[in-house]
């Protein structure tokens, strides 16, 4: 991809929020597209956050970033998404006391359906979308459904943070650097049901499960310690830090988008509309191991999953189906 001729327009929703604040300065500094590409930032938040959003735009101006062509603030997604090449959909309705899961899906459907339509109205042909706002997979499903005319595969959700968490835990358990690790994968939903898999992972070229076994960490360590630690890390951060992941989420979102645009092959995990791979119902936005190359991603196919992996994937996909069925019954996929 060569964006050098004109600035790349990046939209960030929830731009007055915490992850917004952690991601915008990095985008403006050129961390997504490199040192030769001018960036135009379109910041979207709700009207109540307009003043805070203005303050963020003022701070971005005060950095005098050489690559920052312009910053514009919006409360209307149609205007914010006009001509957009990359969209980080971060803003979402948090769960509040007394809110049932269906209420949360309904409140978020009301955000992501109009945003999908607004993207269909005016986004650029090479649009790429990553949904960060939770429940991220199902919010991406809703946005993709309403983004009529945009190829579905352009709508993805973030499980790169889970992938990075899995890398960090494995590196720690095997006392190696994360750079020595390959083949870790996140399967399923960005939720506690996700399946962080070490089945095909290697550490310095040796199967990770063998390296772990040599350190006295067998299947029960994987099942009882590694998987829950990765899958429940978001809740652990909330408990320990007193707020949900912000810096690590912003970092993961940049890596997700940057690798998607990479010319060179990169193996990672992304939640993407299923093609039917591994028996996952077509269209569900599910995390898979993917290979990014030439500005596209493809699901890494042909892995022979063992029974344990199949069962874990199935359980997380059941949760995705239940979320999909709830939004269907709420009329959000009409
Ligand atoms: P935050 O509450 O600090 O900010 C959210 C922002 O979104 C607020 O400024 C709010 O006004 C805005 N917003 C709400 N509705 C909007 C709408 N319709 N349009 C535009 N903006 C809107 O939250 P945060 O810490 O920045 O987190 C944002 C989301 O990211 C949450 O849903 C959180 O659960 C999720 N998250 C996902 C991951 C992941 O790995 N997928 C990791 C961390 C957090
Ligand atoms: C995370 O994985 O850190 C977040 O999705 C947690 C949350 O509920 O915001």
The CATH class of the largest domain, by name, is Alpha Beta
Q: Tell me the CATH superfamily of the largest domain.
A: Lactate dehydrogenase/glycoside hydrolase, family 4, C-terminal
Strand order of the largest sheet: 3-2-1-4-5-6
- Ligands and ions found: nicotinamide-adenine-dinucleotide, (2S)-2-hydroxybutanedioic acid
Based on helices, strands and strand pairing, what is the structural class? alpha/beta
Unreliable parts: none
Give the beta-strand count. 14
- Overall, the morphology is globular
Query: How much of the residues is beta strand, in percent?
Result: 15-25%
Q: State the order of secondary-structure elements, H for helix, E for strand.
A: EHEHEHEHEHEHEEEEEHHHHEEEH
From the 3D structure, determine the CATH topology of the largest domain. L-2-Hydroxyisocaproate Dehydrogenase, Chain A, domain 2
| Major sheet | 6 strands, parallel
- Range of helix content: 40-55%
How many angstroms separate the termini? 35 Å
Mean pLDDT: 96
Count structural domains: 2
* CATH level-two architecture of the largest domain: Alpha-Beta Complex
**Gyration radius, rounded:** 19 Å
Q: How many alpha or pi helices? A: 11
Describe the structure.
By secondary structure, the chain is an alpha/beta fold. It has two domains: 8-157, NAD(P)-binding Rossmann-like Domain (Rossmann fold, 3-Layer(aba) Sandwich); 160-322, Alpha-Beta Complex (L-2-Hydroxyisocaproate Dehydrogenase, Chain A, domain 2), CATH 3.90.110. Helix content is 43%, strand content 19%. It is built from eleven helices and 14 strands. The chain has helices at residues 18-28, 50-62, 77-80, 101-122, 136-146, 160-174, 208-214, 219-231, 233-241, 247-260, 307-329, and strands at residues 8-13, 39-44, 68-74, 86-89, 128-131, 155-157, 181-182, 185-187, 195-197, 202-203, 206-207, 266-273, 285-293, 296-299. Strand 13 and strand 14 (296-299) form a beta hairpin. Helix 5 (136-146) crosses helix 11. It is globular, with a radius of gyration of 19 Å. The model has no long low-confidence stretch (mean pLDDT 96). Bound molecules: nicotinamide-adenine-dinucleotide (NAD) and (2S)-2-hydroxybutanedioic acid. The site of (2S)-2-hydroxybutanedioic acid has 6 residues, from helix 9. Nicotinamide-adenine-dinucleotide binds at residues 13-14, 16-20, 44-46, 49, 90-94, 111, 132-134, 136, 158, 161, 190, 244-246, 249. Its EC number is 1.1.1.37. Pfam families: Ldh_1_C, Ldh_1_N. Catalyzes the reversible oxidation of malate to oxaloacetate. One of its GO terms (biological process) is malate metabolic process.
